[in-house]
Design a protein that fits this description.
By secondary structure, the chain is α/β, with parallel strands linked by helices. The chain has two domains: 228 residues, 2,3-Bisphosphoglycerate-independent phosphoglycerate mutase, substrate-binding domain (3-Layer(aba) Sandwich), CATH 3.40.1450.10; 273 residues, Alkaline Phosphatase, subunit A. It contains 17 helices and 16 strands.
């Protein structure tokens, strides 16, 4: 049965909108009044995981002191999140961190007095800092960072697929001659960022841009006798088409490359590597090349077949992460092959290389799932397999612990006793790294079992690894579950573009806020 909300989503598709940037759709009653808006004293569970894109919206809804835009006065919410998005947010956390991840690559280098420099554009800076440091919010002593601003004011990044890659490379080239830095970590964001947009021409420009900067970086590393490692956090555009020819804008299960160019030696192709490994093997390889003892916590294995022969105490390394650059079959759907990558191809041909697993269990995810930037960078830095939050939550649902979680029971029981609404907010997808319908359905079942009746659902949609127009399918599934359980009503649908910003684009977040609180959006009679 096609409901009014689902019909409104499909109408938006026909008008030219797509899932990621779908303008807010808001349920209204016969008098045109928005239904299920966030009201003072009500209760919210933001059930997304991963977290870095959820911080700004959570701040908007929870912070007493807030100056980025005007909010509805005296609207205080009782707020719980599935995981910890940031340690300073004023929320209950259902699945808090299980202690700090000890002795990541950054921490080990810091303890050994080794200076490092991390360079990325703002769109990916959090990945080589927060995630790569084991979800540690502060840099370690001796770790410096340069963040190059990602272009602003664009309707779509496809309008400028080059992003700020040249600026990132410029900063690296400028600092490579400084002998005080022993490790450089550089992220080129283009392939992943543009790969999520259904624009083949822009994707090809992104690939060629990254390849050109790779050539510049290799030349600079050779000039400065810096060992270059080239790898990626996950795959994306090397498998960009489904078998029926439609575009897959999501991540992939492909392995990623690892190329080692030892420009500190007379023969840059002299070191030998294992043929295969996984992302958690990168940190142990770096430590071995820097002649630093690997900590016990790092269960990853060095990719070197044999250790370098003496005289490498002052070696310097550049770890270059080509974000989203997977290794796939040479076919019509491989946009890297279609675009052409002469610099990458030459390095793959001339230097030792390996294939690294970057998805599924190798990066702490369920078997058979695609990789993502959080898991990829976390494992590159940790040097061991880290069980991700999604797996922990799935296990808690399976063993029943999820339904006894005090953050959930407290907020639901309070909503029932006060006869106030419970709002469930988050991504609607089975494949997103930011969450899954399984978690929403578990919360809905829990709400039904605890006798709640006023449950409003605010759905965020976004096509990452989904078929075209998949948002309407997922919203329909949520509404089917509402009918089956006899609890819940979908009252908001909007693209994740508005709600899940991480670049302090407060105009985007304000649009999401005004939809949730005031009901600004396309009205739909339900």
């Amino acid at each position: 049965m096609e409901t009014a909300i689902v019909k409104a989503v499909k109408d938006a598709y026909r008008s030219g909108q797509e899932d990621e940037a779908l303008l807010p759709i808001v349920a209204v009653d016969r008098d045109g009044r928005p239904i299920g808006r966030l009201q003072n004293g009500e209760h919210v569970i933001f059930y997304d995981i991963r977290g870095e894109r959820e911080v700004e919206l959570t701040q908007t809804l929870t912070e007493r002191e807030f100056s980025h835009f005007e909010r509805k006065p005296d609207t205080l919410l009782n707020f719980a999140t599935m995981i910890e998005y940031h340690s300073e947010l004023n929320t209950d956390v259902a699945f808090p961190p299980e202690g700090r991840i000890q002795n990541t690559l950054g921490e080990v280098l810091s303890k050994n007095g080794i200076r490092s420099l991390k360079i990325a554009e703002s769109e990916k800076a959090i990945h080589i800092t927060y995630f790569m440091n084991g979800k540690n919010e502060r840099p370690f002593p001796g770790e410096e960072r340069i963040v190059v601003p990602t272009p602003e004011g664009l309707d779509s990044y496809a309008d400028r697929p080059e992003l700020s890659a040249e600026g990132v490379t410029d900063e690296l080239v400028k600092h490579l001659p400084d002998p005080s830095y022993r490790l450089f970590v550089v992220n080129l964001a283009n392939v992943d960022v543009i790969g999520h947009i259904e624009n083949g021409e822009a994707v090809c420009v992104a690939v060629r841009t990254v390849d050109a900067q790779l050539g510049r970086i290799a030349e600079a590393c050779q000039k400065n006798n810096v060992t270059l490692m080239v790898t990626a956090d996950h795959g994306t555009v090397e498998d960009w088409l489904y078998p029926d020819g439609t575009v897959n804008t999501g991540h992939t299960k492909s392995p990623v490359p690892f190329i080692l160019e030892d420009f500190s030696a007379s023969d840059a192709s002299g070191l030998r590597l294992r043929d295969e490994g996984e992302l958690s093997d990168i940190a142990p390889t770096i430590l071995e090349l820097l002649d630093v003892k690997k900590p016990e916590e790092m269960t990853g294995r060095s990719l070197l077949v044999r250790p370098p022969i003496g005289g490498h105490g002052n070696r310097r390394i550049c770890l270059l992460i080509l974000d989203g650059w997977g290794v796939g079959e040479e076919n019509e759907g491989n946009m890297i092959c279609r675009a052409g990558s002469p610099h990458f191809d030459k390095q793959l041909r001339d230097f030792p290389h390996a294939l690294l697993q970057a998805s599924g269990e190798a990066v702490g995810m369920p078997e058979g799932t695609v990789g993502n930037s959080e898991a990829g960078h976390l494992h590159i830095g940790a040097g061991r397999r880290i069980l991700l939050d999604r797996v922990k939550i799935d296990r808690a649902i399976a063993d029943g612990g999820f339904f006894r979680n005090t953050a959930f029971t407290r907020i639901m029981d309070r909503a029932r006793s006060e006869d106030k609404a419970l709002h469930l907010m988050g991504i609607v997808s089975f494949y997103s790294s930011h969450g899954t319908l399984d978690h929403l359905f578990a919360l809905m079942r829990m709400a039904a079992e605890r006798g709640l009746r006023k449950v409003f659902i605010h759905s965020l949609i976004g096509r990452r690894g989904e078929r075209p127009e998949s948002g309407s399918i997922y919203v329909s599934k949520v509404e089917d579950m509402c009918r089956k359980l006899g609890v819940g009503q979908v009252v908001t649908v909007m693209g994740r573009y508005w709600a899940l910003d991480r670049e302090e684009n407060w105009d985007l977040v304000e649009k999401a806020y005004r939809a949730l609180v005031f009901g600004d959006g396309t009205p739909v009679l339900v």
